[in-house]
Write a structure and sequence with these properties.
The chain is of the alpha+beta class. Helices cover about 30% and strands about 25% of the residues. The strands form three sheets. It has a six-stranded mixed beta sheet, with helices on both faces. It has a two-stranded antiparallel sheet with strand order 1-2. A two-stranded antiparallel sheet has the order 9-10. Strand 5 (about 115-120), helix 4 (about 125-140) and strand 6 (about 145-150) form a beta-alpha-beta unit. The longest helix has 18 residues, at about 55-70. The radius of gyration is 18 Å and the shape is globular.
């Protein structure tokens, strides 16, 4: 076994400090983190978020505009903003559809009970989103999660969280779909996944 590998294995055995949401916010207050820091707090660890490519950004823009238009006055549609989930978790989902509040959550961050739907758009982060973030949302009782798999052009739908696990999971590539708690926002998946025309 190489020295580097042995050192890594020893590090994995060492207890790690789990940062609380309060400590995480304190880092921002003293300037260790700022609004340009692309990080989120997952199970007490500060995780660096992947850069956003054009296809990821385009799908995000499409869904944000569509949902905001369809749900205005019924729900708040937040893009890449934090959601407070317990003492050690503050993820920043690509899109969170939240219960309507007149102050648009200016007074406080949304919590699990405020969330109607979370959408994660996955390109290079598919495994992380599926294996880390989806279980995190299930553990916190988020009623529905959509995982938009850009590479395979399919939508994974997770719902019915119970005992920290989503009881229902299915994939859909075509047809129309609406969030369970926002049935007015019917999305045509063929239109969502349509290849953009060349700009040349």
């Amino acid at each position: 076994m190489s020295t580097q590998l042995a050192q890594r294995e020893l590090l994995n055995l060492q207890p790690r400090h789990r940062w609380t949401v309060m400590e995480y916010h304190k880092m921002a207050e003293v300037g260790l983190l700022n609004e340009d820091s692309r990080v989120e707090l997952i199970d007490g660890e500060i995780i660096e978020m992947a850069p956003i490519g054009s296809e990821h950004a385009g799908h995000n823009n499409y869904l944000m505009n569509f949902l905001a238009y369809r749900l205005y006055g019924k729900a708040v549609v937040a893009g890449q903003n934090p959601v407070a989930l317990g003492s050690y978790e503050e993820p920043q989902p690509d899109i969170a559809v939240l219960r309507w509040r007149n102050d648009a959550y200016r007074g406080a961050l949304p919590h699990a009970e405020d969330v109607l739907l979370i959408i994660e758009i996955s390109d290079s982060t598919l495994r992380y989103d599926r294996d880390v973030k989806v279980p995190l949302y299930a553990k916190n009782g988020i009623p529905e999660v959509w995982l938009l798999d850009i590479q395979n052009r399919q939508l994974e739908i997770y719902c019915e969280p119970r005992n920290g696990v989503y009881q229902q999971r299915r994939s859909q590539c075509t047809g129309k779909i609406a969030p369970i708690l926002c049935p007015d926002a019917v999305i045509d998946l063929e239109q969502l996944f349509r290849k953009p025309a060349s700009n040349v």
